[in-house]
Design a protein that fits this description.
about 290 residues; Formate dehydrogenase/DMSO reductase fold; about 70% helix; mainly alpha
Amino acid sequence: MQTKAFSKPALGVFAALAVIGIACWIFQLLNGLAVTGMSNANSWGLYICAFMLFVGLSAGGLIVASSAHVFGIESFKSVAKPAVICSTACICVAGMLVLVDLGGIARVWRMLTGPNFMSPLLWDMCIITIYLVINILDLVWMQKGDEDKVRKLSYVALPVAILVHSVTAWIFGLQIARAWYTAIMAPIFVASALDSGLALLLLGLLLLDKVGIAKLDDALMAKLGKLLATFIAVDAFFIACELLTMAYPGAGEAVALSEMLPAQPPRSSGSRSYVACSCRSWYWPSQRTARSAA
């Protein structure tokens, strides 16, 4: 795959987005975490939701790059570098979202001086740090052309990538009092991360090809598309298994599931009630998917 540098207008857009992000963070420091949607009823605001999203998006890139060496898929090597760059960018964003979710930089040191080793959040912080180091080493050795080190690192990177999404799933799956307390949560998170991560990589590659930064092979894109379809099928099977188990009559989670499912249409014939009912019908499956996408 042939590449070329970004143009100055593109770099200007990226710089403008960075300035906007810093301005939003300063606004949060002045007004508190309530601006993210966090409240007594909602313990996780916008940042943790986005954290799950970007952890999931980071999966596809590193797994595709590692598979090129672990499974001997030579065609994947041509997109290994942009795949790892995509993975590194997403995991960096995920880590920064955790830091800003603390509410202030002054609280960061507490993550080191007072860790709770029984908390899945601490496990996640450790495995994400390892994941980021692997991504950086992968990029450095790719840039140097050291194929032997990249190949050896791939055998470590692939299981670590799966572990990252499993640990993120356990943050939710180990909460006994919640409706998503289930052993299948980790497989769902891994499958959903493969869906979203590979989809992001495909979109990124198509964009690079569209603007002329990279020249792609149609056969490779078709192969990645078929791989994505397989991941989606596996993810759908896992989610269907969970929903069937929860919805089966007499199951302990049947009540929780019935509360999430769309209720009967309200008696009011006003347009506002109809829109609310329609939004709720759409939101339930997307909510389940969002919980699985990390």
